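Reopening this one. Same input as before:
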Amino acid sequence: MKIEDQECCPEFDPAKWDKKTFQWENKHFLKESIPTIFHIPFPATIGKRITKMMELADKAEANIPDKTDALVLFRDPSAFRSEILYSVTKTVDGATNTDVTGTYAARVFEGSYNSIPKHMKTMQKELQAEGKTAKDVMVHYAYCPGCAKKYGHNYMILFAEV
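Same output, byte for byte:
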């Protein structure tokens, strides 16, 4: 089957997320950690962790019903470890569960993985112009590499806790 015919990542609508503010109150996520080398993850590790979280969420019937609202967030607490947060509708047995509470400013950017530092600086400048400061930043990649090729875009959403 050709990649163009495969159902994988839903088509992304940047307008739904760009320059929006989200107030999350105990938003449910599954959490996994992966090793990185100076913020660069091992791709095979990402796939294994996300597959594990998807399977646990499927088994618990906790997946987000509308795939266009589902989030897989990446956060780098250090240069040698990333956290993956997978949004779910409820607590899932057998998984590492975490809830996220806070106000998050979202901005949509397009580019390669290594463009994230540049996008973070741009976002920080935009927030400063609004009198806000990012306490923490998480990234959602709209497409896997195959779907980025299929759709012709490599969108990402930066969520800054403000």
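So the earlier flakiness isn't reproducible anymore. For the record, The CA atoms of residues 146 and 152 lie 10 Å apart.
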